[in-house]
Amino acid sequence: MIRVATRSDIPSIVEIENLSFDAPWSSSVFRSYAYYPGFIVLKSEGVILGYAVLVVIKRAAHLASIATHPKYRRMGVATALLEGCIILAKENSYPLIRLEVREKNNDAQKFYLSNGFEMKGVIPNYYPDDNAIIMELDLEC
């Protein structure tokens, strides 16, 4: 079940975040997004399997973060969360979803490409140790 994240979800989300990223967001960042319509979780049998944060920047949806607990990867969790984000963006008439992904993260790039995203450019030194690839999904096609 995909639903909006609540404060009680934060400990599980922070655990997923810490297991997924070298420079994880703090729990205070996630607390600030609690109950925000674009902060969603996928929960099954009482366990949060993954989360996504979709925010609006200049009338475009920005996928700020998405992660799946390592035990549940390659089971469709990220795809379901991304589909949830696409639905949210379309419901709000956003023309596209934009994101940045590490240049070194080939698996994430392949995931987004397989879901219709296109590479749009590079931001040098976006991350302390890597460039970012800008990717977009056009929702007006």
UniProtKB/TrEMBL annotation:
Residues 1-140 form the N-acetyltransferase domain. It comes from Methanococcoides methylutens. The keyword Aminoacyl-tRNA synthetase does not apply. The chain crosses the membrane at residues 34-57. One of its GO terms (molecular function) is N-acetyltransferase activity. This is N-acetyltransferase domain-containing protein. It comes from the Archaea. Belongs to the acetyltransferase family. RimI subfamily. Keywords: Acyltransferase, Cytoplasm, Membrane, Transferase, Transmembrane, Transmembrane helix. PROSITE patterns: GNAT (PS51186). Signal peptide: none annotated. InterPro entries: AcTrfase_RimI/Ard1, Acyl_CoA_acyltransferase, GNAT_dom, YpeA/RimI_acetyltransf. Pfam families: Acetyltransf_1. The lineage of its organism: Archaea, Methanobacteriati, Methanobacteriota, Stenosarchaea group, Methanomicrobia.
